[in-house]
Amino acid sequence: MQIQAVIGSQCRRDWEHTDAATAEPVRIAAIGLGWYTRGRALPALADSDRCEPTVLVSGSAEKAERVAAEFEAVERTLTYDEYAEGIGTDAYDAVYVCTPNAFHLDHAAVAADHGKHVLCEKPIERDSGRAENLVGVCDDAGVEVMTAYRMHTEPTVRRAKELIDAGYVGDPVAVRGDMSQRLLKRVNPDPDQWRLNAELAGGGALFDIGLYPLNTARFLLDADPVAVAGTTGSTHDAFDAVEETVTCSLRFPGGVTAACFASHNARQSSSITVTGTEGQVRIEPAFFQDQDRKLELSRGDSRAEVAVERVDQMREEFDYFADRLRSGADIYPDGRHGVVDVEVMEAVYEAADRDTWVEV
Q1: Per-residue model confidence as pLDDT tens digits over 299-346
Q2: Domain boundary at 150, 185, 212, which?
Q3: Is the domain of 172 the same as that of 135?
Q4: C-alpha 87: how far from its chain's center?
Q5: Is residue 322 part of a domain?
Q6: Domain named GFO/IDH/MocA-like oxidoreductase: which ranges (predicted)?
Q7: 206 in a structural domain
Q8: What local confidence, expressed as pLDDT, does residue 8 receive?
Q9: Residue 128: per-residue pLDDT
Q10: Which one of 150, 172, 206 terminates a domain?
């Protein structure tokens, strides 16, 4: 096959259905103004020609006003109570939910009640029951819901999937993926943060970053696991309620296997590799946003390494969402795609507790 035909235009948006110059921008209400929304989501929305951040919703009116001053497109700010009451619904078309996992359902239900579409951060909820309810209320209201997996629109991952789909690796046999970071050192030193609260987060390293190799394996293989095994562990006192480290094995249809590792107390690292009967595709680094990506290819005696231009992953994700809303094309990953990951992760915890394989 001609590799250049796939990777020659690395960052092409092969998912576009509408012309950004003529499509009406989607007005977004950002729900939750934590560091990720402020530092990643809002700058991406402000830079987009398909979306704009017109409403900010926060538990603190003062915080919302302070953040709003940094973004010209913001028309108004709301408290959570005002958002729930339906104030300001004429100022936005859809919501972006970026709060602790256990609040996703509540905010999505409000959006659905107001007839607004939903882009919900991953994992879609803290447990599969609430995740199903979230999708159900959106379905009942006739609004779209998308799970915010930015790897699905990351150009390096999309080019890897094209190669796999075109047969470059032959028949996929195995996937290896990992993601690790020092949470308390690099992200948030507070031992009482919500990511370490089982009721708010649903889980630890698996729910927060282990989800990246798990979901990207599903995306690259275009398949869902049928059985899982796993182990979890913690060495730091801050991780007494959720796991610090997780390792899981996944069985996919056709005998394909995957091994995923994640840790909140290991050096920052991420990669994903798909090995097949004829070749191998590897991305490293894979999942962290502020890193240049390399696509490593091997088939027979041939080797190649391709540096892929860095993009704003959040803008790609927002623009995809807007393109789908304006075109009416199917959304992938939709809400039910997000539910599957929560079900798989719950099965990993069950498998770790029982020390056995668990069917999904």
Answers
A1: 999 999 988 889 999 999 999 999 999 999 999 999 999 999 999 999
A2: 150
A3: no
A4: 29
A5: no
A6: 157-281
A7: yes
A8: 65
A9: 98
A10: 150
CB contact at 8 A, 207 and 197: no
Tokens (6 digits) for 134: 């979230």
Q: Which domain holds residue 118?
A: 14-150
Whichever domain contains 80, its CATH number is 3.40.50.720
Mean pLDDT computed over 243-249: 98
Backbone torsion region of residue 142, taken as left when φ is above 0, otherwise alpha when ψ lies between -120 and 50, otherwise beta: left
What is the distance, to the nearest Å, from the Cα of residue 323 to the centroid of all Cα atoms in its chain? 18
What SS3 class is residue 301?
coil
Q: Are residues 143 and 163 in the same domain?
A: no
Quick one: pLDDT at residue 121?
98
- Mean pLDDT within 216-243: 97
* Residue 63 domain-assigned (yes or no): yes
**pLDDT at residue 5 in the model:** 59
Q: What is the mean pLDDT of the segment spanning 141-152? A: 98
Size of the chain in residues: 360
Do 129 and 245 fall into the same domain? no
Which two tokens mark 231?
């182990």
* Greatest CA separation for the chain: 63
List, in order, residues 6 or more apart from 323 with CB less than 8 Å away: 15, 16, 17, 18, 23, 50, 329
Residues whose CB falls within 8 Å of the CB of residue 111, separated by 6 or more in sequence, listed in order: 31, 94, 95, 97, 117, 118, 138, 143
